[in-house]
């Protein structure tokens, strides 16, 4: 026998927790039907604006566990009794807009607020969009080359110049020429003027030109070999996917010919215009970078130390090139160039560049650590991030005695980088510390080199004398002593060995 819905009265429960979920659901359905009949209209449960929609919320079904036949207390405590429900219907209030005490707030985050929150979280983790570094010179030249006509000569020139990594080659060239200018030629000659003669302006300028051209071509060769061996891995990184070999602007055969030709010409210019020791150092650098560092990037993290050696060789090349101009026969072997007392300054510069590589490269690699990982390169930035920051801090501290040994102001230039290296180690690259250390290292090296050139001994002596009108005492003393020695050599002597006046000697003759 079926009962009319109007005759069904929901049970009045003083405590909703004493009812099971099935009874609660039936009570809700019965109350809704009773209200619909009394108003003279039949509709679905969710059609009336005054219909309670508590049991349509997903929280009820999520909280209900069919296996255990229990309902969470948070839901039971929020269920209204039938008496309270009837009162709310009589007042015409909507159950949807009425907050339920004890129920969790269901606030939906707006899209623009969600984007803002994610951007702030990415910024705090330092792995968001701001990590994207600008395109390097090779990528820019490749883009320029691809935009030109296929048969254009500029297209080929731009592509081959991109193969040489011009920005990196210029940095290597600057470290070489700075060491060439820092060599104390005048101080060495003052110790013993008979050992060597001061190079003339023409010879020193010619040597400088040979050194500049040979170093740039050798660096271009090393970079070309680097791109020749890993185009498939360059395609996996955003910073390198625009290189000429990856984009097909140059064939692998053309890149190999370019690398070999620049290597032979560059080393040949250094051999002819400087000395064999500089040429040997350049050849060693091409071999280390192209044939040792490049494949080792996919084997072990020790590749960072090999790359630091590659960066330390160019300043030694400039120092040895300057030392070769004052060398004489029997004093120009590689041992004399590299292991003598005069080579100490070159070793200090090489040590400075070796230590500088770690805070510079470790901070840079941290910004693109996920790209290195995707490409399969074994870098400390993702293999061992804690060690990556620790090594950067360690070598930043080591640079203090090295800088002080060469120039006391170099320690002041290193203070800023040490501060950023400490932040990089403390925050493990987060909070912008990696980017801060990278830019500190970019500015630290030129400050050190330019400061060393500005404070080189004897550079400002002539300027001071011209400004204040002081005579050149050293030059006058040397000239007087030279004149005295010349007069003594030209004065004839008697039988007893005494000096005879020049007029008397002429009369006797």
TrEMBL record:
One of its GO terms (cellular component) is mitochondrial membrane. It is a multi-pass membrane protein. This is Protoheme IX farnesyltransferase, mitochondrial. Converts protoheme IX and farnesyl diphosphate to heme O. Residues 87-97 have a biased composition (Polar residues). Belongs to the ubiA prenyltransferase family. Residues 118-127 have a biased composition (Basic and acidic residues). NCBIfam families: cyoE_ctaB (TIGR01473). Gene3D superfamilies: UbiA prenyltransferase (1.10.357.140). The chain crosses the membrane at residues 168-186, 206-229, 250-272, 278-294, 301-324, 344-361, 397-417, 437-455. It is found in: Mitochondrion membrane. It comes from the Eukaryota. It is an enzyme of class 2 (transferase). Residues 470-490 have a biased composition (Acidic residues). Keywords: Heme biosynthesis, Membrane, Mitochondrion, Transferase, Transit peptide, Transmembrane, Transmembrane helix. GO terms for molecular function: protoheme IX farnesyltransferase activity. Its EC number is 2.5.1.-. Coiled coil: none annotated.
């Amino acid at each position: 026998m079926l009962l009319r819905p109007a005759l069904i009265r929901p049970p009045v429960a003083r405590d909703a927790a004493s009812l099971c979920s099935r009874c609660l659901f039936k009570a809700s359905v019965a109350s809704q039907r009773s209200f619909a009949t009394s108003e003279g209209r039949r509709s679905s449960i969710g059609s009336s604006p005054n219909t309670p929609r508590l049991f349509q919320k997903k929280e009820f079904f999520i909280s209900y566990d069919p296996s255990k036949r229990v309902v969470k207390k948070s839901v039971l405590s929020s269920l209204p009794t039938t008496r309270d429900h009837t009162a709310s219907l009589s007042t015409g209030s909507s159950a949807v807009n009425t907050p339920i005490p004890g129920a969790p707030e269901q606030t939906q985050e707006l899209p623009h607020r969600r984007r803002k929150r994610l951007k702030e979280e990415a910024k705090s983790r330092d792995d968001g969009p701001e990590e994207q570094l600008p395109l390097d010179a090779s990528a820019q030249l490749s883009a320029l080359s691809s935009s030109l006509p296929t048969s254009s000569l500029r297209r080929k020139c731009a592509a081959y110049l991109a193969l040489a990594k011009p920005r990196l080659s210029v940095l290597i060239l600057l470290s070489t020429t700075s060491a060439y200018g820092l060599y104390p030629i005048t101080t060495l000659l003052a110790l013993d003027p008979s050992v060597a003669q001061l190079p003339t302006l023409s010879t020193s300028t010619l040597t400088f030109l040979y050194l500049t051209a040979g170093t740039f071509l050798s660096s271009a060769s090393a970079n070309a070999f680097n791109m020749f061996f890993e185009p498939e891995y360059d395609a996996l990184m955003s910073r390198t996917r625009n290189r000429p070999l990856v984009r097909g602007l140059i064939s692998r055969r053309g890149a190999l010919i370019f690398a070999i030709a620049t290597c032979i010409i560059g080393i040949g210019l250094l051999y002819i215009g400087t000395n064999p020791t500089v040429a040997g150092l350049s050849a060693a650098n091409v071999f280390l970078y192209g044939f040792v560092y490049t494949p080792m990037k996919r084997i072990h993290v020790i590749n960072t130390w090999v790359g630091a050696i590659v960066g330390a060789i160019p300043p030694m090349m400039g120092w040895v090139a300057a030392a070769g101009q004052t060398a004489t026969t029997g004093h120009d072997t590689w041992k004399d160039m590299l292991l003598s007392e005069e080579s100490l300054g070159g070793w200090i510069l090489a040590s400075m560049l070796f230590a500088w590589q770690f805070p510079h490269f470790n901070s840079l690699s941290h910004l693109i650590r996920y790209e290195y990982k995707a490409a399969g390169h074994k870098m400390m930035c993702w293999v061992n991030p804690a060690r990556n920051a620790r090594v950067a801090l360690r070598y930043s501290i080591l640079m203090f005695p090295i800088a002080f040994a060469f120039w006391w102001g170099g320690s002041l230039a290193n203070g800023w980088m040490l501060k950023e290296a400490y932040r990089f180690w403390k925050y493990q690259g987060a909070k912008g510390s990696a980017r801060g250390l990278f830019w500190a290292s970019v500015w630290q090296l030129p400050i050190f080199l330019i400061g060393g050139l500005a404070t080189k001994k004897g550079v400002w002596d002539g300027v001071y004398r011209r400004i204040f009108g002081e005579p050149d005492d050293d030059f006058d003393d040397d000239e007087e002593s030279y004149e005295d020695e010349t007069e003594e050599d030209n004065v004839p002597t008697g039988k007893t060995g005494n000096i005879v006046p020049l007029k008397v000697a002429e009369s006797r003759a």
